Amino acid sequence: MQVPDRGDLIYFDFNPRTGTEQAERRLAIVLSTKKFNGVTGYPSVCPISRTEREWGFDVPFLKV
Q1: Measuring CA to CA, which of 2, 4, 32, 53 is 20 to 30 A from 10?
Q2: What are phi and psi of 30, to 5 degrees?
Q3: For the chain, what are the domain ranges?
Q4: For residue 10, what pLDDT band results from cuts at 50, 70 and 90?
Q5: What is any Pfam family matched here (predicted)?
Q6: Spatial distance between the Cα atoms of 41 and 37, rounded to a whole number of angstroms
Q7: Cα–chain center distance at 30
């Protein structure tokens, strides 16, 4: 099994979900280190969305 590292883009299954959270398999960026992910088996990730919101904690990606 490949262990993701911080900054990697991965497809992540966000099911099960509650409320209006994103569901299904979505693109996400890994926030935790490879060492942490390897030891725990649970990477910390943040979903990536094309929808712009004004919640104050959005981080824009540069268009390439």
Answers
A1: 53
A2: -80, 130
A3: 9-47
A4: very high
A5: PemK_toxin
A6: 5
A7: 5
